């Protein structure tokens, strides 16, 4: 059965809206300050040339726009996609878009995660803009 372009467009928009509504109902972070972050899309899970480091190393030697991998825990949520991340050597503010959380997986403040992101160093703030969050076993 052939659908007209208008009906096809309406059907596509309705399907996208239903998918968005379903995602918005699924919280992705459940630690302190959580207010219903959403699930996300899939991502690459193979090897990486981006160095794993500690927060202390990143804060002491990191350059603006440098990519880094950190392992630790999201310990609190501050709204507007901002969290505090702790790895035992220090804490850093991280910015995580809702769609960068693993699809269908809830992340608590007790779980170890790996963050892959880009360091944003300004004169008044330093944070990691996360591009991928992986829950560690």
Write the layout of secondary structure elements.
Elements: H1 5-24, H2 55-61, E1 67-79, E2 82-86, E3 91-96, E4 113-121, E5 126-135
Parallel strand pairs: 3-5
Antiparallel strand pairs: 1-2, 1-4, 2-3, 4-5
Characteristic key phrases:
137 residues, alpha+beta, OB fold (Dihydrolipoamide Acetyltransferase, E2P), five-stranded mixed β-barrel, 2 helices, 20% helix, globular
Description of the molecule:
With 137 residues, the protein is of the alpha+beta class. The protein has a single domain (27-135), classed as Beta Barrel (OB fold (Dihydrolipoamide Acetyltransferase, E2P)), CATH 2.40.50. It is built from two helices and five strands. It has helices at residues 5-24, 55-61, and strands at residues 67-79, 82-86, 91-96, 113-121, 126-135. It has a five-stranded mixed β-barrel. Strand 1 and strand 2 form a beta hairpin. The radius of gyration is 18 Å and the shape is globular. The model is unreliable at 6-26 and 36-40 (pLDDT under 50).
């Amino acid at each position: 059965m052939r659908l007209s372009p208008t009906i096809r467009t309406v059907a596509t928009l309705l399907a996208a809206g239903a998918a968005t509504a379903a995602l918005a109902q699924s919280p992705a972070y459940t630690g302190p300050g959580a207010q219903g972050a959403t699930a996300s899309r899939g991502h690459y899970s193979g090897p990486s040339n981006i160095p794993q480091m500690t927060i202390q190393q990143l804060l002491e030697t990191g350059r603006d726009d440098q990519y880094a991998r950190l392992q630790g825990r999201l310990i609190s949520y501050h709204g507007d996609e901002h969290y505090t991340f702790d790895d035992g050597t220090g804490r850093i503010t991280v910015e995580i878009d809702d769609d960068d959380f693993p699809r269908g997986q809830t992340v608590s403040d007790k779980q170890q995660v790996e963050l892959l992101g880009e360091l944003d160093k300004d004169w008044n703030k330093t944070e990691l803009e996360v591009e991928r969050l992986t829950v560690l076993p």
